[in-house]
Amino acid sequence: MAEILLNSQSPITHQVFWNGDIGTPVSNPTVKLYDVTIDPTISPSISPTTILETLNSVLDENNPGTYVVYIPYNYTDRNRTLRLKWEYYMGEKYVSRVDEVYVVTPYVDFNHVQDLGFSVDASDPNYKSYKELMLAEFLEKEWES
Question: CATH number for the 2-105 domain, one of 2.60.40, 1.10.287, 2.90.10, 3.30.1490?
Fold first, then answer.
């Protein structure tokens, strides 16, 4: 599950594979954006079937078969769970894939994370997600008490 920070616009990627190899769809995937947050305090309630916006992905020039979208800022203004439905054709075959993205409040800033020896790059072995950092803080407080 991908995470992006509150009020940010980080890239969300999708790599196209077809029959075990990197594939090239007929055209760039389109991405339907849904808010699937379960939050009883939001009124009126959010329908998880309502499409917020349809985004057009772009090919990542450095990574073959990888497509990127940026979630607009107005959907990262509070903590929520967003569903992205990637849709494209491989030849005549329709393909769809669903990913979820958490919009989260930063627990610590990037500089602090790096000072602690962790990475902000998800591909780095020292990467720690928001949830892992919160769990570490919780365990540290439990240990101290």
Answer: 2.60.40
Tokens of 68: 């990127």
H/E/C letters for each residue in the chain?
A: CEEEECCCCCEEEEECEECCEECCCCCCCEEEEEECCCCCCCCCCCCCCCEEEEEECEECCCCCCEEEEECCHHHCCCCEEEEEEEEEEECCEEEEEEEEEEEECCCCCHHHHHHCCCECCCCCCCECCHHHHHHHHHHHHHHHC
* Cα–Cα dist 91/111, whole Å: 46
pLDDT beyond 80 at 9: yes
On whether the CB atoms of residues 22 and 64 are closer than 8 A, the answer is: yes
pLDDT at 120: 65
pTM: 0.72
Domain boundaries, the chain: 2-105, 108-145
Strand-pairing partners, residue 14, are 67
